[in-house]
């Protein structure tokens, strides 16, 4: 995979692939969009070194912009779909105690201005899906949700791209560098999942 992405690192196709993956994983959280972003960043960094083309900064900025934009667009699509199909989503959420609890916490956080929960949840496994769909089901106003979604998408994109870039720079554009960067992403996800389960701390910091 690293070799294939390395060949695409200097073409527009890398942004199409990354953008599509990030956009769709709000509906299919099993898609490894974070892994793909990291791998693409590692491949772009390795390509810049191997071709002596200088800095990979422009490619990194483009990857951040692509991933962040796709993240926000995917969030908004999920939000609007959940808004229009609220009853069906309510019934689906009611069947899961975890989703019901997450929905209640999200509503409380948004009402109190504690949108930090939206940012933190972006790093947690499936957290983005729960937040985007939950905000739509609860008919939260877009101005309450969109700024935090944008901040969440940008934060996640910057973090993922930096992991890939510095992993490739320090450890080389190899599977080892990619694996270490992906491990750091998963650790951040585990930490985010822990914080989401303790929303009072997040709300206190945001308030």
UniProtKB/TrEMBL annotation:
Pfam families: VTT_dom. The keyword Cell membrane applies. Keywords: Cell membrane, Membrane, Transmembrane, Transmembrane helix. PANTHER family: INNER MEMBRANE PROTEIN DEDA-RELATED (PTHR30353), TRANSMEMBRANE PROTEIN (PTHR30353:SF0). It is found in: Cell membrane. InterPro entries: DedA-like (IPR032818), VTT_dom (IPR032816). It comes from Streptomyces thioluteus. Its main location: membrane. It is a multi-pass membrane protein. This is VTT domain-containing protein. Belongs to the DedA family. Residues 53-165 form the VTT domain. The chain crosses the membrane at residues 12-45, 57-79, 145-166, 172-196.
């Amino acid at each position: 995979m690293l070799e294939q992405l390395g060949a695409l690192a200097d073409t527009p196709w890398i942004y199409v692939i990354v953008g599509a993956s990030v956009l769709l994983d709000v509906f299919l959280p099993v898609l490894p969009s974070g892994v793909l972003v990291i791998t693409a960043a590692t491949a772009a960094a390795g390509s810049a070194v191997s071709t002596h083309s200088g800095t990979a900064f422009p490619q990194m900025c483009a990857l951040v912009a692509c991933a962040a934009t796709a993240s926000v667009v995917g969030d908004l699509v999920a939000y609007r779909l959940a808004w229009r199909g609220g009853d069906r989503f309510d019934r689906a959420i009611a069947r899961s105690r975890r989703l019901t609890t997450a929905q209640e916490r999200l509503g409380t956080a948004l009402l109190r201005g504690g949108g930090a929960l939206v940012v933190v949840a972006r790093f947690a496994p499936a957290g983005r899906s729960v937040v985007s769909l939950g905000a739509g089901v609860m008919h939260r106003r877009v101005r309450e949700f969109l700024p935090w979604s944008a901040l969440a998408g940008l934060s996640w994109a910057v973090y993922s791209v930096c992991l890939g870039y510095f992993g490739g720079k320090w450890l080389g554009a190899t599977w080892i560098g990619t694996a270490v960067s992906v491990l750091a992403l998963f650790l951040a996800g585990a930490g985010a999942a822990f914080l989401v389960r303790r929303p009072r701390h997040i709300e206190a910091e945001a308030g």
